[in-house]
Amino acid sequence: MHRRLHGRGALFDVDPAGLAPRLVGLRPHQHRGHPFEHPGELPFVVLTGARGLGKSAVLAELRDAYKGHTPVALVDCADAQFAGPPADRPAESWSPVAQALLVIAEQLAEPVTGAGRITFPRLMSGLVAVAAGGWSDADSERIRREVERILLLNESGSWISGFAGRWAGRVAAKVVAAATGSGPFLSGAIEATLESVAEGFASRRHQKASVWYRTYPNAGGHAQRGLILLSGHFRAGGTSREHAERYLVRALLADLTEAYAGVLPRMQRLGRPLVLIDDAQTAPGPGLVEAVLRDRAEGIADQVAFVAARRGEGREELRSAVRRELPEVARRSGWTPDAAPSSRALLVALPPLSPDDTLHIVGTVCDDIPVSPQLPYATHRLTGGNPLGIVLLAESAAQNQAVSLGELLTAGVRLDEDQEVAPAYQALLDRLVPAEYLDELTVLAAAHDHDSACVLAAALLPDTFGPADVRALRTRLAEEGLPAEPGRFVGDPFVRTLLLLRLHLRDADHASWRTAHETLIAHYPDPEQARYRLHHELALGSSESAVAQLRDTFHTADIRSWLRTLRFVASAPYFHAHDADGRDFTGHGDRRAAIALGRTDAGQEPPEGADAVLHLRIRRLLHAVWQLGDPLVLPDPKVCDRLRFELEQLSNLRPAANALLWRASRDWPAAALAGRPMADPDDSDDPDDTDDGPDDRSGEA
Hints:
The protein is mainly α. The chain has helices at 9-12, 19-24, 55-66, 96-108, 121-132, 140-151, 163-179, 185-200, 204-210, 223-236, 238-259, 263-268, 285-297, 355-366, 375-383, 387-399, 405-410, 424-432, 438-444, 450-460, 467-479, 493-504, 511-523, 530-539, 544-553, 559-569, 592-596, 612-628, 637-653, 658-674, and strands at 44-49, 72-76, 274-278, 305-311, 322-325, 345-349, 412-413, 422-423. The chain starts with 8 loop residues before the first helix and ends in a 27-residue tail after the last helix.
């Protein structure tokens, strides 16, 4: 099994082989060949999912697994070097795609076991032509600096170390001379460049590459004209630039193909070169991916293993892609393309980690530090298996003497020696949500749908953030790959919990927190919306209305819907302590357990006319579910026992609905102790029970 990552064996396993060795043709961390699953055309693999699922970690491990054994390059499209051109370079002669190709080629050029450096004469010539489009007003030093970096792509060994620097000076001199001549600048610069390259790189391979641009559209069989056209298309921008960039990508792949051609290279080089593209949803990612897919669809073959990672599912950009879950590609991908270019992509969704994976990660990070045996399972319930969340919470546990997950989230954590200590919840939000919308999402996390989000925005956000912005933000969350959940504006429970915690801590007196919930209480006045109103009342510490509603509807409501209402109301967040009257106070006590265990029953006076026994039982049950369903609290076995007892007793009061209530009395405490969410009880063990009628989910939140 893979040495550092958990739950990703379908990619890295050796025997039987996972997806990576079947595509690359090499065993991870070994210079040993492996048969290709796709010996002809291979899929362009795209790892998909929301933030924090470990896509970047997978790419980093792929690089480490194959570096030194086969040519490997890794680019992060979110890196600052792709955001814009250097200060002294005109925008018309620079693009994220061209910059990425240079960075990729520089990494692929490195020597590997049994083989020397790969040179990139085709790409080099094209990049020089593109750069030359911005030299009209450049000084000789800037030209020399730009040319030298590009010419280094043709350094084939240490024995000519410094060669590129010397020739860069000659090229710069010729370009400067061309710029002062009477002819057109660009043609003079490219002619000077080609002459210098031809003089300096006289091998058959370089000469062969120098004429490659004769086939550029409308070049008429002249390499110089082809490069001039390429440079002009690049400077023109828009679709013309995309055309030129696609040709540059083709140049990179043609250079790689030639490096593996012939008898000797095939004997020396095992496997395929590997190109890794992180954050491929942002430039230069889309341009790189589309160029490769289009050429492959048009029959322009290459043997490069591409693995990209992107947020979201890529439904719009890669509509015809073959889609698989990670376990489905563990032994065979089942990928077969059709005519559409995007069908050349194989999208693999990374799943959350399992409870066992969480147990191992917490154990590894905490090492000899004693932690509660329930912590790994509670961590898995809170994070939903999000690898980033698991690792960061484990780091917080290792660095802080905290007990509850709530304390671990608010405690300071240092992830790297050169970073400042920051609250764990803030460090997580910095990585899990778009930074530009953090304040808006903090408020809207309490909402349930578009209308309630608009109400919250009007109450707590600037006037400039209106309904259209609410819709745009909801769309952005979907594009980010965050799951949708009925009745929740922010569907991912882990992210929602972090955002609500930030809302609670936004003001020292919790003013924003109270305003948000009071606004939503007023927004849901109708009886059919009671579950939402009661949920927000409970978030403010007031349980009287919830107890009354659940008590009064127990004998008449569909019991499955009644249990869902109980769960939804009790899913109210609890980030602070409340006094006996439900008001915030500065203590750290959690009164829910005391109420659930009946320790406060003596001081309670049920409402006049109410069934006192049922009233207190519902009150205890509500607080038991509230605490045991709280993702920030380790489950209390005593409260679990009490939950089981209360549900058993209720099942005796509704004989016709006995099966569901009795099943819940078993399933819910077991789920809480195992760190799983409490779900709908399964009554399949009693096939004769049909009293509850159809499974009506219309009121489910």
